[in-house]
Amino acid sequence: MAVTQPLEYLSQAQIDKFYRDGYLVVPGFLSHEQTSALLLRAKELLDELHQRIIPWTLYASQTKFTTSDKDHIGDNYFLNSGDKIRYFLDEDAVDSSGKLTRDKAKAVNKIGHALHELDPVFRNVTLENDRLKALARDLRFHHDPVALQSMVIFKQSRTGGAVPEHNDSTFLYTSPPSALGFWIALEQCTHTNGALSFFPGSHLTTPITKRFVRLPEGGTGFEQLATPPPLSDINEKHRQNASEGVSEGNYVLETCEPGDLVLIHGSVLHRSERNTSAHTRFAYTFHMIESSPYAEYDEKNWLQPTDAMPFSRILDVPNEITISTAVH
């Protein structure tokens, strides 16, 4: 894959691996100091939950989070969180009567979705990170990327739930699809505490067939695409390489150290298992998408920019040339 500009951070081998497999682990992307600051701030946000004056039974019943095909619970609270910092619970953190099954802080699945805008610690590693800008220029996945949907994801010890197989473009749909996930380990991620698993090369063979949308009658749900976007033109060698040695359902688990970054193509299938260990697994994640006029952000998407908080651009100068993504 030819490169027409000097690389600043990634190697050509890393770039090729990302486009072949649909994901890439970048060791030590954040320094120890940066990672420790994010982890400390995440724990502070959990502590602040106890200080919030909200009727807890109502709050709990409205904030469960799921990536399954079930309609989202607590839609208004969820839909209005794109420009705020809000708390969401594990699916099994509330019983059928609406009562918590565990301590508040250990019931939280994630905090989102505007940490990168509103919290100085998270903003520093997202919108004000020169290394991140260099990576975006090297990868050339977008012309003019914007950031959105930032979250701290908590896999609590013994109780952190599994996340089923999915791809990110289902939840952040653009035309053409352009979602790119940035997932940063804040703690060690192992095979027992819910490390991410990927189906390498599935972004080359698995089109987006549905999207998570705001429903006309209110709330959210999944909408099947009448005609899934076609496979884009791609070097056939990459498609063949991606399928070599990868049988259907052959997932690869990627362990991570604190500060490691995982880049996630919007079409690659990935998942994580329940945390069965005595150790927590905290991570910070956000996404980039292509901006107009290079892509159209669907008005049905659950997360919408506001006048007060439009999606922030990452690059000072857009990339003139991008690398064709594999499958939409």
What does this structure look like?
The protein is α+β, with helices and mostly antiparallel strands and 328 residues long. Helices cover 23% and strands 23% of the residues. It has ten helices and 16 strands. Strands 1, 2, 3, 4, 7, 12, 14 and 16 form an eight-stranded antiparallel beta sheet that branches. Strand 9 and strand 10 form a beta hairpin. The protein is globular and about 55 Å long.
Fold topology:
Blueprint: H1 12-21, E1 23-26, H2 32-49, H3 56-61, H4 75-79, E2 85-89, H5 104-107, E3 108-113, H6 115-118, H7 120-126, H8 130-139, E4 145-155, E5 163-166, E6 174-175, E7 180-185, E8 196-198, H9 202-205, E9 210-214, E10 220-224, H10 236-243, E11 252-253, E12 261-265, E13 270-272, E14 281-290, E15 296-297, E16 312-313
Antiparallel strand pairs: 1-12, 2-3, 3-4, 4-14, 4-16, 5-13, 6-15, 7-12, 7-14, 8-11, 8-13, 9-10
Provide the low-confidence segments as ranges: 53-65, 232-248
From the N-terminal CA to the C-terminal CA, the straight-line distance is: 20 Å
Pattern of helices and strands = HEHHHEHEHHHEEEEEHEEHEEEEEE
| Helix content estimate | 10-25%
Q: What structural class results from the helix and strand content? A: alpha+beta
In DSSP terms (H or I, runs of 4 or more residues), the helix count works out at 10
Percent of sequence in beta strands: 15-25%
Overall pLDDT confidence: 85
Please tell me how large the radius of gyration is: 19 Å
